[in-house]
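User: I'm curious what two different proteins look like when written out as structure tokens. Can you demonstrate?

Assistant: Sure. I'll show them one after the other, since each token string lines up with its own sequence. Here's the first protein:
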Amino acid sequence: MFARITTCLLFVSASLLCAAPNVLFIAVDDLRPELGCYGTSFIQSPNIDKLAASSVLFDRAYCQVAVCNPSRNSVLSGFRSDTTTILANNTYLRPALPDVVTLPQHFKNHGYTSLSLGKIFHHSQTEPGDDPQSWSEPSWYQGQPYRHWFTKESEDFIKEMKQRPKKDQPRLIRAKPYEAANEPDDVYPDGQTALKAIETLQRLKSEGKPFFLGVGFVKPHLPFTCPQKYWDLYPEDSIRMPENSAPPEGVPSPALHDLYELRSYGGIPRTGDIDEATALKLIRAYRACVSFMDAQLGRVIDELDRLGLRENTIIVLWGDHGYHLGEQGLFTKMTNFELGTRVPLLVSAPGMKAPGQKSRALVELVDLYPTLAELAGLPVADSLEGSSLAPLLDTPDRPWKKAAFSVYLRRGPEGYKGRSIRTDRWRYTEWKTPKGKDAGTELYDHDNDPKETVNLAADAKHAETVQQLSAQLAAGWKEAVPAP
């Protein structure tokens, strides 16, 4: 098992004595585990791939809720959504849990400089949501004069929208959900975050204190806007629609949504299907933004290396939830499907015994709080609702959790809530009305149908499996935790 770090660590260089490990905590918005290091040959992600070579890559990692705010609050609190009670983007952690000690706050309370750059908690430059108690200094992200669109076409579109009578304006005035501009990286939010992270690492190096540095990249979140050079990595004629572009056979209606996030952007119809030309452009633009974000990540880690901080720094890279790009007839997140809940997760730590290896263990983002606390030798509260992944950094193939758990609330008059469980073979989901009545059940066989194209829940041949998984879902996460 990974040795628990207590009073000091001895690292590769004998000159580094009794140094508390730093933490570089990299959050990426809307990132699918569709990367070179995950076996996807058509995605160009050289910097994430390089990080994977010194990390354990978790091939089956899952978020607790497939939308930004609830997922991030689960990670940062160490609690699942049943405890945080947060299932939407417009409610925040501290009002729900006034006395919570967040992950970065825990490090701050133990002598770390705790800093937030980019999107860590769910908030924009103007919206609330960041948690001042978590940080040694105010979050840098809020108040930054960010832009997402730069072409004349986009500017003219926004100008025309603003000139319309108020009654004819959309609630959010946005240009198209994609754009390729002949602009440098550093005019975009993630380029500016990378610059600030480089500057901050230099400062932290000079100060000599251990640090917890949260760096949050917003791409590939909508709008899929980035420099033209990243679009050029993915020629137009190389983009194809996914094979499973139709909803699963027998899927209950609460499992799907109407693409409402995408429809808030210009040029996207308010109802009806997305035409194939637009869908292909969205897929291409998303991939371009992945490579753009990867380049910014590379700049930050290169500076960590240049400053000689890498040997004494824990690095974790995680995506806050999955994403659909036309699969199952959907775009964006907000589902309980595998594509909505599965995320990329890499962990690199000083002294780990299995760098460059993959783990097929079922793990969850709620596990990050106890993992980082243990790796840094900090107390791990019994109240946390995840399991430290530290043992998997030494033995990635050891027995682990029996299941991962996710939930999603369909907002609106119906208010359907779906609870989902992922086991080694199956994904099983139950949808309920607010009064607890059945609103649909899903069962997908990942041994034979990994793209989740056929719902087997009503198949009499699988009645026993449904019964077993329903009982396992009801028993909850405490019955699925790994043996000590």
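Here's a second, unrelated protein for contrast:
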Amino acid sequence: MARVLVTGMSGAGKSTLLAELARRGHRTVDTDYDGLTLPDGTWDEPRMTALLAAEEALVLSGTVPNQGAFYPRFTHIVLLSAPLDVLLARIATRTTNDYGKTPSQQQQIRGYVRDVEPLLRRGATIELDARLPIHSLADTVESLLRAPDPSDHAVAASTLDY
């Protein structure tokens, strides 16, 4: 079994993908909602370290500035990506999260797509088109849960942190 991190911009479908994987019986953790993310927007390093030490089979989602420090502890790092217009349209209609509804937040998202997504892409072991049907994305992540480590994640954390 493997540990998989699903990352990507707001509106890419990380939470929806995790919900489908949980429905299929997989252990999932959405760091947007479980208290692993500190008020400054970073992961709580001691709690994250303990979680990853305790879980051999896990799908975790989130996008935070210090996630690169944890990349070596994941077997696969999945980047969910979609064009900016798709992300903004999804955010405008979602009811589970208010982030991205204001013009200033939408401008912030544009900046993240421009500046942060390339860093996420550099650290990803696979990139998935978030416009694909959710069952197809979940099938791919399930196959990763069974797959061996694809490479050494020895990319310097400083090149991944934003």
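A detail about the second structure: The chain has seven helices and five strands.
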